[in-house]
Amino acid sequence: MRTAPTEQPSPQRTDRDTPASRTAATTPLAGLDQVPWHDIKDSTGSAAAIPRLLGDVARGDAATARAALDDLRKRICQYGFVVEQATAATVPFLWELAQSPRVTCRPQIVKLLKNIADARQWESVATVYPKLLNHRENHVVWERRARQAVRARRGALRTLLAEVRVREADRELAQATTELADTLAE
Asked: pTM value?
């Protein structure tokens, strides 16, 4: 299989300890405005709705958060395995939400991260149909970046695993976290 070009801009956040990242620890989703959401695509077209959906997941009641996460999933990881251009930019925020005890749908967020880490739909198609790599919108690159974004934050798994060991009541989060850890260990 040919190597896909990677010249598309990456709006990923970094893990460096800067004043902005220290603020992010106290202000949920502080870096949302640093991503050019209007310029990147999700499965519906413009990814402009993603910040609102992430905010609803972060601050909504259980029903609102779950509905927003379901919509977000359809936009960035359709069918549980087809990622979009906006997926890699969304992943750091998903990690942040997964680590926040206030978020009501944390197990589902961790499962979404696992789906993204497992995504190889476009790569599989490209092995059979290499012309896919010549398209202006290179889905293979989007998929690789999304997987890399999940792996880049895998250090957060230690915190999540430690938390679920202490709080045995949240078995669903424990199972989702363990499954993601197994996927990232491969």
From this structure: 0.77
